[in-house]
Amino acid sequence: MRYGDHEKELSGGEAETTNNRMEMMAVIKALESLKRRSKVELYTDSIYVQKGVNEWMAGWKAKGWPAKIKNQDLWKRIDELTQKHDVRFHWVKGHNGHPENERADALATGAVPRS
Question: Are 78 and 21 in contact (CB under 8 A)?
Answer without folding.
Answer: no
